[in-house]
Amino acid sequence: MNSVVVRTLFSLFLPGGLVVFSTAILIYLGVLDKSLSALVHIYPYLVAVAGMLLGWRFNRSRLIFAIVVLALADRGLLLFSPSAGAASLSVGRTVYNAIGFLLPLNLVFVSRVKERGIFTFHGIVRLSLILIQVLGVFLLCRYHTLGLAAFLNYSLPDGHLLSWLPLSLPCLFSFGIAFLSLTLGFIRHESVIENGFFWALLSVFLAFAAGKIGPISTIYLATAGLVLVVSVIETSHSMAFRDELTGIPGRRALDEALLKLGGNYTVAMVDIDHFKKFNDRHGHDVGDQVLRMVASKLAKVTGGGKPFRYGGEEFTILLPGKSAAEAMLHLEGVRKAVEQTRFIIRARNRPRSKPEDPKKIKGSRRKVKITISIGVAERNEKYANPGQVIKAADKALYKAKKAGRNRTST
Fold it and tell me: Are 170 and 151 in contact (CB under 8 A)?
């Protein structure tokens, strides 16, 4: 199977899929039967508190709103469940389908909005929309004989492929739209947050597919919240260790990798030639494109090398188990790959969208040559610790630049 496909499937399944499937298997096997009564009094509240604190600490309002929506859905289902004796069968069924219809759409909405804070204008508007839905469900309970209740309770005919599910047709339609939207969102962005909302939605679906409101539905809804909490933690970790602009590991990841190394290794310091002049002339947006292009070439380094963004226009390549002489062949390959890539600068008057009758604009495309200089140093008796090796590689980089740039030096 194609490595890109495998990596995409792997990133889709982890971490959310592991959490949801583990929960489903434990419930299916009855492992949690004896502890369900205790779990429902602890687990949802722990998830809610963790989500609120994490959302507040990392300014993740989407996590907080998602936790609020899940908590209100769970309390609403339990409050109006016929088994609780607080509602009739018809009222309970109406609330069940109303929440089953609204909850997937709310999760999609929360996943799409930008982080705009909680006690801001945008945050208050979003919270108001949630509370309006709570009021709507309450009024639906009071007037459940109206046509809207009949619409929400419309079931699939017997013998239909999905008729075994306790969900009404509008609920199934809502879940279908939500799954499609979140799947497309993940394909476009492949972010951990998109992944989290997808698996949270699946956990919510399992809660409703179970058909019985009670401990099991509460566990599934709490698991949906847990998936989002884990996704935010994973995202924060990724932001700390991965450079957002280039997509390769950052300075902190380099420090961690150096601490784990033992034995012989080589460090290469890489600098984009004349980048400051290029940036001043063509603008920061074009400069960012150059950084991404160079990073993509460095990511293809052979010999087991791993690139890191060191800062600004500087990168570092770490080659474990390689001497400087052995590393030179692999580093020269990267340098030549960058040199042979023609970077295209588009004219500012180039139309944003392709016209129906395109005409060649004079000077609309200009190819420029991007080159890099590389300084190489290996760990040895003279340079025993990572700091000394990096300093030696920096000196070698200065030597390469002084010798005319676009070369590799030791």
Answer: yes
**Sequential DSSP letters for 248-296:** SB-HHHHHHHHHH--S-EEEEEEEETTHHHHHHHH-HHHHHHHHHHHHH
For residues 137 and 140, give the distance between their C-alpha atoms in angstroms, rounded to a whole number.
5
**Identity of the amino acid at 357:** D
Element (DSSP H or E) covering residue 318: strand 314-320
User: From CA 238, how far away is CA 250, in angstroms rounded?
Assistant: 10
What would the pLDDT profile of 198-249 be if each residue is shown by its tens digit? 999 999 999 999 877 889 999 999 999 999 999 998 888 777 788 888 889 9
**In the block, residue with structure tokens 């990511």:** 299
* Highest averaged pLDDT of the listed ranges 17-26, 76-85, 180-189: 17-26
Strands 372-378 and 365-369: unpaired
Q: Which residue has the tokens 């609330």?
A: 95
Residue with tokens 């030549």: 336
Beta strand pairing call for 372-378 and 265-272 = antiparallel
Of the candidates 109, 319, 129, the one whose C-alpha atom is nearest the C-alpha of residue 197 is 109
Cis upstream peptide for 15 (omega within 30°): yes
Catalytic positions, please? Answer: 313
Confidence grade of residue 406 (pLDDT, cut at 50, 70, 90)? very high
With a CB cutoff of 8 Å and minimum separation 6, the contacts of 108 are 177, 178, 181, 182, 197, 201
CB 373, CB 271: distance < 8 Å: yes
Q: Which structure tokens are listed for 212? A: 């019985």
Q: Which residues contact 47 (CB under 8 A, 6 or more apart)?
A: 67, 222, 225, 226, 229
CA dist 60 and 174 (Å) reads 26
Domain boundaries, the chain: 3-241, 251-347+363-409
CATH of region 251-347+363-409: 3.30.70.270
Residue written as token pair 């998602």: 66
- Cβ count within 10 A of residue 40: 19
Give how far Cα 317 sits from Cα of 273, 294, 308, 322, 395, Å.
17, 12, 6, 12, 15
Give ∠ CA 323-329-335 in degrees, rounded to 5: 120
DSSP 184-203: HHHHHH--HHHHHHHHHHHH
